[in-house]
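RloB-like protein
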Amino acid sequence: MGSDDIFKKRRADRKKRTHDFKTPKANSFLIITEGEKTEPYYFNGLKKQVLEQIGGTVDIIEVPEIDIYGQGSSTGRLIEITEECVNKAKIIYQNIWVIFDKDDFPDFDSAIATGKSKGYAIGWSNQSFEYWIYLHFSYSDADLHRHEWNKKLNELFKQYNLSADGYEKNLKDLYDLLDSIGGVDAAIKNAKRRMENFRDGIDTPSSYAPGTMVYLLVEQLKAYLK
């Protein structure tokens, strides 16, 4: 091989290494959700507030990078999709969250364990994300099916004049509506109260109903608003 060919090969190798290199990104979040509407709408509302708040501060403060994807997949498949997103990402995310419900999925507990083993934080809800939304209005430890939570939310959204049609999954301003009544801080408080007796590693999430760990992510993101 001639000297020119050697130099060309070295340049190509350097270019490939540079292209493949991923940069760790401080204050970065990857949020993968099972739901395709409710959860992404909720977290995009919070994301907007965070970016508006940080974006208006001193330049040296790094704006968090928050990427949110609604997948509409089963719990086990959601972990696989998260891994695919992580591998394809151009940066190394500092915080990787997977948000999903128990519903009637038999692989709920195993999906949580698998996700944690890969270093992901799991924002699970049992039975549904609607329980987390309900906590924005009031505390409850009632073990209800998601349809019952939907009925309660439908009444509450009308009662608080948040939506004339009641609770719907396609409310794009869901987070702002709930935040307007002081609901987000209330939900964090109520969730902590409900989960204070949950023994991680001892109690199984599938048997702890109702329950939700979504508050951990919301609390982490809201810290940027202080």
